Amino acid sequence: MHYSAATVPLAVTAGMLYARFAAASVRPGPRRLLALTPVLALLVALPFSIPLYSARSLAAFFLVWLGEFKLLLLAFGRGPLDPSLRPLPFAFTAALPVKLRQPHKNSSDASAAAAATAEKTIALPLLSSGIKVAAMASVFGLLSRYNQSMHPYAAFALFGVVIYCLLDSLLPCLAMAGRAALGMEMEPQFNKPYLSSSLQDFWGRRWNLMVSAVLRPAVYDPVRARHGAAAGVLASFLVSGLMHEVVVYYLTFREPTGHVTAFFALHGACVCAERWCARRWGCKEAAPPRAVAAPLVVAFVAGTAFWLFFPAIFGGGMDDRYLAETVALASSFLHAGGRLLRLVGL
After folding, report:
1. N or C: less crowded end of the chain, CB within 10 Å?
2. Which GO terms of the cellular component aspect does the record hold (predicted)?
3. Four-residue CA torsion sign, 304, 205, 164, 65
4. How many of the other CB atoms lie within 10 Å of CB of 267?
5. Where are the domains of the chain?
């Protein structure tokens, strides 16, 4: 498939507009699923056309994971998508990791709240994203200089900082763009995960909330209704692990090892154990203060990620490839910026 910068966005937009038309024309059920099949196949194929590692992995996350799940839920009349949405908001919500905020019942209260927070909604994401971009630039500078002599776990920690900064700067900016261009209020995607008081708090209420918002109606609720909450939690983490494995394959084009799935299966089991202990011994009353719990949660997530998650993404020389791509992109941007400045006479 031939690639240009506009190929994937245009194809995705066309596919999502067709999905809206099909969903509006066919009632939920197997027939709607059949009508959406061409778009489901398109979303799987499109990331393969992207040559850049970073862009390909983001496209796989947006389209192959979240986009596919949203359309599958739409096929059966569930999830965040609704054919009654206007075309552009539908395509924006379907293709990107954003979720429309439910409107207030009192429209005057909603207008007042929107007016009071408009400036904050724009300024804070821009400031936060600027800080995170600067942090990523600093981390890439360290990695490009010392990656060969650095301990693998130190490199993994720095790459982990890059992943968090990238997601927590890009996703809020996408939500802000949707608000500015389409007038849509978006729900937040991250909520200070470094302040998590438990693993359940980390995964369910703070880290990458769009994944939780998709897994809940697609996996957790149906499994919980039949087999109980613990089975729903385990199934959700297992599906998350398998989909992370798929995204890692799009990123590296290497045969899956199962380590990423094992990481999420382990965390699912730990969340279930955490919930059981809280019920068994009433740990909510005796829970450690956040100043103690948050570092323990972050340390556990980081330690298990160093063991199972990061080697699948950055091991085997992949880290050097990412760094080389980043250096090449930075050089291209600097060169283009220099040419632009010369054109305007600066």
Report:
1. C
2. membrane
3. positive
4. 23
5. 7-95, 118-190, 192-338
| DSSP for 73-115, written as a single string | HHHTT-SS--TTS-HHHHHHHHHSS--BPPPPSSHHHHHHHHH
pLDDT tens for the chain, residues 1 to 346: 555 667 899 999 999 999 999 999 999 999 999 999 999 999 999 999 999 898 999 999 999 999 999 999 999 999 889 999 899 889 999 998 887 765 555 544 544 444 444 455 556 667 777 888 888 888 888 888 888 888 888 888 998 888 888 888 888 887 777 777 777 667 778 888 999 989 999 999 999 888 998 999 999 999 999 999 999 999 999 999 999 999 999 999 999 999 999 999 999 999 999 988 888 776 555 567 788 889 999 999 999 999 999 999 998 888 888 888 888 887 776 666 666 666 766 5
Query: Could you tell me how many residues make up the chain?
Result: 346
Q: What is the DSSP letter of 66?
A: I
Q: State phi, psi for 186 to the nearest 5 degrees.
A: -110, 150
Amino acid at 150: M
Name 310's Cβ contacts closer than 8 Å, sequence gap at least 6: 156, 159, 160
Q: Report which residue type is found at 311.
A: P
